[in-house]
Design goal:
The chain has 246 residues and is an alpha/beta fold. It contains seven helices and seven strands, in the order βαββαβαβαβαβαα. The chain has a single domain, classed as Rossmann fold (3-Layer(aba) Sandwich). The chain is globular and about 50 Å long.
């Protein structure tokens, strides 16, 4: 097999995934895509359509390796689902779907990845697209926060268990970024936050340089730092005022 880095993006059809694929592609990375859709643009060297509910992830990864002739060195997991609203107003069906996609799907993809890298002489890095919501409570995002926080703790545990074998499990926690993701959840702030191209560049940089867990965005890093240094201060100064004004 060739030794060019081979990165697989799961959930490859989103605008952010396509932007990350382009960033990796121009840096000489062989990028494969797995998605429910087949319209993935030009950033992917190869792509396959998969049914998330029925997928055999190990088999999918092995097929991508065989077709490319290049071992998979990293996997970026990007599927996500969100419904915003007061905690008790969100239906059980929507809450269950958030956990199904944001948590359970991630664990199944990661299970397939580790089975791939458990082969003697193999290892890799599994990255997941989480959110600032994984790190703290945010009004109107209770179920999303809970599903992302569960995924974060699961990944941290996998990282502890698998690093002795050479494999790592890491994540990104951005805040708002400009995409259609929130528009599908009934919000209108798709043009607020970090430009998509800037976020894609930061993700590509972290993957290529094999950095540790990343909170992305200056505002998000300030919030994360404040939570560590003075727990509760952001809630008192910002979030409670926001709730009171609604």
């Amino acid at each position: 097999m060739k030794t060019v880095p081979h990165i697989v993006i799961v959930g490859a059809s989103s605008d952010l995934a396509k932007a990350v694929a382009k960033e990796l592609n121009v840096r000489g990375i062989f990028v494969s895509g797995l998605s429910r859709q087949n319209d993935l643009g030009t950033g992917y060297a190869q792509a396959r359509v998969v049914d998330y509910d029925q997928a055999d992830w190990l088999k999918s990864f092995l097929q991508l390796e065989a077709d490319a002739g290049i071992p998979i060195t990293a996997i970026l997991h990007m599927p996500g689902y969100v419904v915003f609203g007061k905690t008790l107003s969100v239906s059980r069906e929507d809450a269950a779907k958030m956990f199904s996609i944001n948590y359970w799907l991630l664990t199944e993809v990661a299970r397939g990845a580790q089975c791939l890298w458990d082969t003697p002489g193999r290892n890799g890095c599994f990255w997941a697209m989480l959110s600032l919501s994984a790190l703290r409570a945010i009004p109107d995002e209770a179920w999303y926060c809970a599903s992302k926080a569960a995924a974060m703790r699961w990944l941290e545990t996998m990282d502890l268990e698998c690093r002795g074998k050479g494999s790592r499990y890491r994540y990104f926690c951005p805040g708002k970024f400009q995409s259609k993701f929130r528009s599908g959840a009934g919000t209108k702030d798709i043009n607020q936050g970090m430009p998509l191209s800037d976020l894609a560049q930061k993700i590509a940089d972290a993957i290529i340089k094999n950095r540790s867990h990343r909170v992305i965005g200056w505002r998000e890093n300030i919030i994360a730092l404040a939570d560590r240094v003075s727990p509760g201060i952001y809630n008192r100064l910002v979030l409670r005022r926001r709730i009171t004004s609604q």
